[in-house]
Amino acid sequence: MQNLGEYLRRLRKRKGLTLKDVEKAGVASNAYLSLLERDLRKAPRPSILQGLAVLYEVPVKDLMVAAGYLPPESGKAPSPATIESAFNLVKNDPRITHGTRKKGPKLSMEAKRYIVGVYETLTGQKLT
Question: DSSP characters for the chain?
Answer without folding.
Answer: ---HHHHHHHHHHHTT--HHHHHHTTSS-HHHHHHHHTT-SPPPPHHHHHHHHHHHTS-HHHHHHHTTSSPPP-SSPPPHHHHHHHHHHHHT-TT--SSSS--SSPPPHHHHHHHHHHHHHHH-----
